[in-house]
Amino acid sequence: xxxxxxxxxxxxxxxxxxxxxxxxxxxxxxxxxxxxxxxxxxxxxxxxxxxxxxxxxxxxxxxxxxxxxxxxxxxxxxxxxxxxxxxxxxxxxxxxxxxxxxxxxxxxxxxxxxxxxxxxxxxxxxxxxxxxxxxxxxxxxxxxxxxxxxxxxxxxxxxxxxxxxxxxxxxxxxxxxxxxxxxxxxxxxxxxxxxxxxxxxxxxxxxxxxxxxxxxxxxxxxxxxxxxxxxxxxxxxxxx
Length: 240
Fold this sequence. Notes:
alpha/beta, 2 domains, five-stranded mixed sheet, 6 helices
């Protein structure tokens, strides 16, 4: 019976692929930072290939009568070396070069946003006769209000790798100035060139009471509205 010769590298590559697949599968079920795990446990690659070499030397030493001469799987070794270079490179840059204080700073430089943050809120305006809305919203939906007060509901979402920072920033996005003539604005300049929090998506629902004017002449995004209150809505001249 002819048996294939054991080539060092095949087992290690298989083990790494299986471990990576399991990790990515788990990340689909629970929140696991795959990049963080890979940067932390990259030395397992060295341990795996080292164990395989030792097993070859001590278990297969006299099997072929070649004194334990090691035969390598070139393709597997090339693949493992590629992973190793990337892992060591990240490790060296983030911890020894002094360019990044934390691993999160490295993620920011690489543009990695691995978590979505969502915020939803509503505000009621008493005695408002006109509301002017400015650009900055992805979409606005206008519905007829069930009572006499104007109500504004909004949701904001953004991708990030710094949840606490994102939540603080999202909480400051909507600016609502109450009064008989009220103003609804968005403050998104803080997200410009920000490496820790992505650009936010902002959607708004306005419940418009009878007799209240909604001025959307400064808004050019996606608009949906109840036909019952169409005459109460002032839109831009181009009809958008």
